[in-house]
Amino acid sequence: xxxxxxxxxxxxxxxxxxxxxxxxxxxxxxxxxxxxxxxxxxxxxxxxxxxxxxxxxxxxxxxxxxxxxxxxxxxxxxxxxxxxxxxxxxxxxxxxxxxxxxxxxxxxxxxxxxxxxxxxxxxxxxxxxxxxxxxxxxxxxxxxxxxxxxxxxxxxxxxxxxxxxxxxxxxxxxxxxxxxxxxxxxxxxxxxxxxxxxxxxxxxxxxxxxxxxxxxxxxxxxxxxxxxxxxxxxxxxxxxxxxxxxxxxxxxxxxxxxxxxxxxxxxxxxxxxxxxxxxxxxxxxxxxxxxxxxxxxxxxxxxxxxxxxxxxxx
Amino acid sequence: xxxxxxxxxxxxxxxxxxxxxxxxxxxxxxxxxxxxxxxxxxxxxxxxxxxxxxxxxxxxxxxxxxxxxxxxxxxxxxxxxxxxxxxxxxxxxxxxxxxxxxxxxxxxxxxxxxxxxxxxxxxxxxxxxxxxxxxxxxxxxxxxxxxxxxxxxxxxxxxxxxxxxxxxxxxxxxxxxxxxxxxxxxxxxxxxxxxxxxxxxxxxxxxxxxxxxxxxxxxxxxxxxxxxxxxxxxxxxxxxxxxxxxxxxxxxxxxxxxxxxxxxxxxxxxxxxxxxxxxxxxxxxxxxxxxxxxxxxxxxxx
Lengths: 314, 302
Known about the structure:
The complex is a heterodimer. Chain A is about 45% helix and about 10% strand.
């Protein structure tokens, strides 16, 4: 049983510390630099960097994309906007946000700085989800992004009329590029349907459900870890039991929502040789949305078939 | 049927790992707080005790950043703050509140900064709630022994200094004529207070630490002014509150269909109720208890 090395979570260097302070990460589409036109680009913001990545893929040379929540060392659930972030958001003509209480601060900034013609895509509204939807991590749901991509194309068409064919072509290309992910999910589901898994919090749950995994961790424990509230001892005992006695095939660990309790679960999983799969709130650097999702399914598959841990996506 | 049901719950309660840790760590905090709390109340240092708890939150939140045990964080900062209090002049009652307030404010300000770093650089989600209000069931089981060791150290120190401490509480002038330095007793008492507060902050959170420190001691002192009896009573009340609170939080899982309430709430609620109960109890029993002359003198002076 091989193990991919787990980076030390604690005792970070001072350098890393200060890098972490740089919350505002600018994501520029690769095509942006290549285009080099004098044409004024549409300022867009993907509040979470996975949405920013999809904007860049659809908008191509006509957009300038920035993302707010892209720091892998922070928990987006507890993000507080700084004045520079507020300005960035307020200046954008197209904003894509997740909704479901994940980025409520954006709503306040937008209300405080009205701008005519501004297009806002709230993914929760787009998917017609009620406010009490327990799991806000919509980007792990296979059906989410095609709808977001189409909505982005429509919004850009309003801001940049005359490039409809360009945007629609890129939507088709994006949809086609999701096929390997869907195929990987279908293949996993066919072969390993009902695989028992434990999780820390619900970030990857939509994908685990799509792959037919059986999430054994009590929902209340997942919610307590996500929201940073008191866990109940019964739930902690169930989770300890699942890991200690290898009742699950995989332990899906959210790298961005951690506390001493999740660290103790990780320790238990490692001691019991339960393979660990790292999942993320925001897209890890060096990935596109599609490649990220494919990598997560592959990591899950490696864990189930060969007992390999993948805590950091490579 | 009911009895069988209860016995099943009981077994599971005691077999649960998180409960075991909570009972041990919370129990040591209750005992140390009770013993030291009695002196804190008698010396009129309740506010200083509360401030040390609040200030220790800076240590708790820094521990997430530094990757050290939260107990070490709470203890380190509480001890530093205790020394700062003594240095800034905690002896005169009027200056005491001002010095305490200044240290408290500075400490909480530091916590705000450290908690910000916790959340933005180490993705420690529940840090604020855990540090401020405690999460006994989320304590790592590896913290059991350090907590017990700190508790034992505090109790041993208390045992060694019991007589001079009593004397300096009861009659500071007599104590100084006997060659007991009130200054050093004050420093040592504040350091022991820091140990008690660190254990309490680890259990019920730094903001609620003073409830565990002051509550059982104050309730017990209402019933008996004899130090030994008051300490024993405070230990019993403290353990009742912490263990009862842990049990109730455990049971609340079944009351609210899986949404158990925070254990710190139950602990503090029990302490408060016990304190309220001591008011009528005092009238029933208190008058018959002879109050030692020296203690009367000490409390009259404070």
